């Protein structure tokens, strides 16, 4: 059974675009998240009581806010070696790699996606990533790919009733 979801941000939870706004010497970075992805992750963490982690290569205050909203307990930003961080989380939570599902879209996710028990990528991921994952989602990053992953796992591991009962 999958006990931990590992999620990349840019290109997976978002469409991969980064918008900067600026006024004189100050700038802000904005990201757009898919509410459908968020609902599925929130059910996973808050209703099913399972773990989720964000491991991302960039740092952003909005990612901290989003992680908190979704009940994501492990947040790592500015990470070059995602596999190393994942292995630390697994050790901390006493979770085996066959109990981990991950989604990512680009080369910095490669080793992590190769390592986990069940790997996913959005439909618009790098061709190199598409070649190594277990499941290429129908949806693009930022447009429901994370939701698709959660629903796939719930169906595959007979958790569909628990997932649906959160709202029915």
- Rg to the nearest angstrom? 15 Å
Residue windows where pLDDT falls under 50 for at least 5 positions? none
CATH class: Alpha Beta
- Name the beta content range: 15-25%
CATH superfamily: HAD superfamily/HAD-like
User: Strand arrangement, largest sheet?
Assistant: 5-4-1-6-7-8
- Number of beta strands: 8
User: Which whole number gives the mean pLDDT?
Assistant: 95
Quickly give the structural class.
Answer: alpha/beta
Main sheet makeup: 6 strands, parallel
What are the secondary-structure elements, in order, as H or E? Answer: EEEHEHEHEHEHEHH
What's the number of domains?
1
End-to-end Cα distance, whole Å, is: 23 Å
CATH topology: Rossmann fold
Described by the principal axes of the CA atoms, the overall outline is globular
Percent helix range: 25-40%
* Number of helical segments with 4 or more residues: 7
Task: Return the CATH architecture.
Answer: 3-Layer(aba) Sandwich
